[in-house]
Fold each of these.
Amino acid sequence: MSVVVQDPQLMAVNPPLVQGARDLHDLTDQISSVVEAKVYETPLKYWITLTFTGSIVLLLGAMLTYLVNTGIGVWGNNRPVGWAWDITNFVFWIGIGHAGTLISAILFLFRQKWRTSINRSAEAMTLFAVMCAGIFPLFHTGRPWRAFYWLFPIPNTDLNIWQNFRSPLIWDVFAVTTYFTVSLLFWFTGLVPDLASLRDRATSKIRQVVFGILSLGWRGSARHWRHYEQAYLILAGISTPLVLSVHSVVSFDFATSVIPGWHTTIFPPYFVAGAIFSGFACVMTLLLIARWTLNLQNLITIKHLDNMNKIILVTGSVVGYAYCTEFFIAWYSGSIYERFTFLNRAFGPYWWAAWSMYSCNVFIPQLYWFKKMRTNLWVMFIISITTNIGMWFERFVIIATSLTRDFLPSSWGYFHPTWVDICTFIGTIGLFLTLFLLFARFLPMIAMSEVKGVASQEKHTFAGQVEGSVSHR
Amino acid sequence: MSHSPDPALLIAQIKDKLGIGEDKVYAVMGEFAEPEELVEAGRRIRGMGYTKIDAMTPFPVHGIDEAIGVPYSKIGWIAVCGALAGITTAQVLIYYVGKIDYPLIIGGKPLFDFTYSIPPTFELAVLFTAITTFLCTWGLSGLPRLYHPSMNYRNMHRASDDRFLLVVEANDPKFDAQKTAQDMRSVGANDVEVVEG
């Protein structure tokens, strides 16, 4: 291959996405080595963390067992707040998942090459977040083993009734189930060429068999790739409207009701923007940890993180704009109930939740206008966490404050979560982290075949480059 | 009464059909270090009159399809059929459930209406498209398949790592083990090998 003279100006404006003087084999080695490491080769801190998060999963199991045994009265849901932490957590987790699909599908359609280093882990995060989300409505039924008949249109003699398709709750079932299935298929499709790489590198019999089966006999033939690329494009193309529809449908659960504070047409875009906002923040938290513990600095570069922070700034500002619109419409509608609900949100008994939400979601991300902040690892780590706290509060504020004080002052109340509520939510965080840790250790966290494609293209642009020639600004 | 065929014979027949066996030749294979070399070599091999050419690469190499004559994938049309099946299923389901089998008047709303059937219809259309696309990706590629003769090539494991392989299959009318291997070397392939089935 001819050596092109390196152009430092071009590198400064547009730094390469895959850094260091690497060839394709090095990339395979670096990404596979995490998966292929022996138990004792993986850092001890990994196993300690896994044990810790695993014990939180046991807590979740205990809480759910207790709930099923006793009844859903162990949660704090009661008059007037019939929907409380369970649906807050459901919307929160579903929202987290949205960034994964955005990164893998929408950025793919826009040909954003920087997505290749982060899309695999973001997609995995989507799957795990949707699993956590599903727990809440499923167990809110109280009898989850019978819920299949209640949720899905399966002919049965258990109830002998059908679902009511006029209700947004059944739309939700369809949306979330489809979302999970499509995300899983998309994720697995992306994994197959990498599983084939692992199969070809496997030295032990067990690994050969396991990866041999999982990779479906993939051999990277041109006749495979032509179907594969087309299929990937189709899956990305349908995931894009899907991800927008899922949170829209979730917002219909509220927007189609007559409760002041819920009954608004701004909800679908507002929920989608919030979902992407919180999801990107969650990807950021996980990636920063993975980048640091697994030494992936050359693959997950400052440029990747900077780009993600820009998206967080945009979506955070959209959310802020939606808050303003809500207040304006509450005033402009002339409805005394709407006006009261919004004043009550900001200055009523839940003022602390509302102001946490405004600070975390709107004020703090404004720091990202400055490049210094967007490229500072500590700043982005802290903001990624405050964003998720803020977005959890957003759902809580929407759900709880609208219900505590409705039309009749005689039925007003205040919501208190029980210890089971709190432990169940913590349990799902544990489940999410455990699944992600297992994924990061046992499957290739970075899409090897896609990164190789990008690296191979960049070789033409940045040929002759040596490690360390790119300055991190 | 149907008598079951001898399993050994059946396996032999299947192997024969798939081109597997010590006595069979699958192809001549060679490798390249760079994707551009592969595309160029593929174009030249095709120019020599070969038609059954394949390439095995760690990532999709652009331009290889035209170079070696791989037809465009028809998977898009199958996906459209999946979407239509999803739309039909949803509409029939919602109509049957709401209007015929379990009519319930709720809030004075109609028993069936197009507007409220849109969200589930959209979701099922997406779901069916995804499942169809997923299954067809592997089905049309002849996967899952646990054994393939190309695995006998000594550098096959590098096709998923950092090498770009060119294949001229034995069922090509112009195929001749000696001559084809020579042609492969002449276009610059390394480690050229006649691979057994």
Amino acid sequence: MLALGSTLITQQQQRRFAIPALFIACVLVFFIALSKGGVAISISEIIGIINHTADDQLKNAIIWQIRLPRLVLAMVVGAGLAACGAAMQAIFRNPLADPGLIGVSSGAALGAVATIVLGTSLFANFSDSFGIYAVPVGAFLGCIGVCVFIYRLSAHSGQFTIISLLLAGIAVNAIVGSLIGVLTLISNDQQLRDLTFWSMGSLAGNHFAMMTPTLCIIIASCIGLLRLSKPLNLYLLGEAQAKHLGINVTKLKKQVFIYTALCTGAAVAITGIIGFVGFIVPHIVRLVLGPDHRYLMPASILGGALMLGLADLFARTVMLPAEVPIGLITSAIGGPFFLIMLLKTYQQRG
Amino acid sequence: MLSGSKLMAKVGQKVLLNNVDFTVKPHEVVVIIGPNGAGKSSLLKALCGDISLSGGVVSINQRTLNEYTIAELAKLRAVLTQSYELDFPFTVNEVVDMAHFAHQEQYSALALKQFSHDAMLALGIDHLAQHCFTRLSGGEKQRTQLARVLCQLQPSLANKQNAYLLIDEPTSSLDLYHQYEVMAQARLIAKQGAGVVAVVHDLSLAASFADRIYMLNKGEVVAHGTPEEVLINTRLNEVYNIDARLQANLENVLPHIVVAKTASYS
């Protein structure tokens, strides 16, 4: 950061080139990820398959049924998580903040675990009516439910302060954690295995019909967050200061809260918990491009797509034919990164 | 005119403001003084619309604050507060540019850039434009923030509209040179047509730069008028509990407060 901060001319150049460069990188990763795997498919074949001009049935099926849905999901979820991470770090005015603070992860986990464990007994009706969608729908409902609860707790008497949001988030996360513990305790072996894998996150086994609602919600939320870039910059000055500059701060906080809850909820519901993308990507982007959200937000979206696209490529090719849960990979990269960031922050503050 | 009439505010049972009347006109610098806990900052926050009043109204240019939207208010008044929490590495130029938000619909990006440039030039920080805000000294940070509020007011001042600058203890963390520097800038901004309200602790500083002074004690205005009228020996004794008087009208010396030697001070 020090080296980058002192040569700001390059930072402006970096800003200009970063977004096109990230976009090109995303396109490259997109095609590489489609071609790699158990069956290698060349780029020219892929273009043929996407244009519906190739007639190799097997390869057609691999691309359209397996690799493309999965890759699109990975990239969109990565983009959404990174955008939400950037927005949360701005709203909490703290570069270590994470969407988990407002209960998205714990809420989704509660919903998913409840559906897995109680799906055959208490929630039999729910499981029957949603079939294979029961766990994602349960996770999404759990996420939104917990977020609404935290929101109501922290938004009393017209105020919506960040400190009350943080405290409510911590308390509710603890309560939800204990509920998940109780459900885990009463689960049987198969359920335990299911919920363990859910909590490690996976992008596998989704087809376009199932993903469409998720993709729509994430894309809409990302557009919403992109439009808040300028107000978020001013918000970093302080709440009173942002208000004096002409921003409706309460409305801004509510908008960010809603977009983040919807976006992360939709992502977590279908993929399980994929940690650290929302934290690392905005961080790296901020180190390179500075804190201006007009650059930070789009670059984080592209960076998130790039990172999760790459992580997924790694997850499904490194141990062929088995695959590593993607949450393990992002956390394995994210954990050490988090520690390094923390140590650097302490060193800077002396 | 920015005015408050019969302002009342309290937190729980504690009265912050009790029946306070206040006015500031364009082109003048009005300073609010008073001992700790007198309600100086509360009065300034009430004038900004940051605290809810239990009575009285604040109005700007004959309309009450409630009749303005947040965005409209931002065009009419800028506020410089005591502390800034900015922990993110924005450049000085970016911080000053934040003032554009309220004006971005009426002005082109080029015109707004010019306002930023003028403001930075006026505060003598144009050479710092590309420096990182978080690594500036206290004085440079304060001047950057002052440039930002100046930039926020410039479009209105250029159009000869009445605009106001409210400053909450701008000098609390600054050395003597920068204290006078900041207040001199506030004077210059008033000269351009803004009405300036400043909360100041230092009575000498207040006497040097104020056209009028409001002295607060326990939430009430105990005196208001020119520095000579307000800062008289008996009142300073009553309110601040010090035996002091104002020395003004000296050649080549700004007005200042002299405190008498008493047993406990020597």
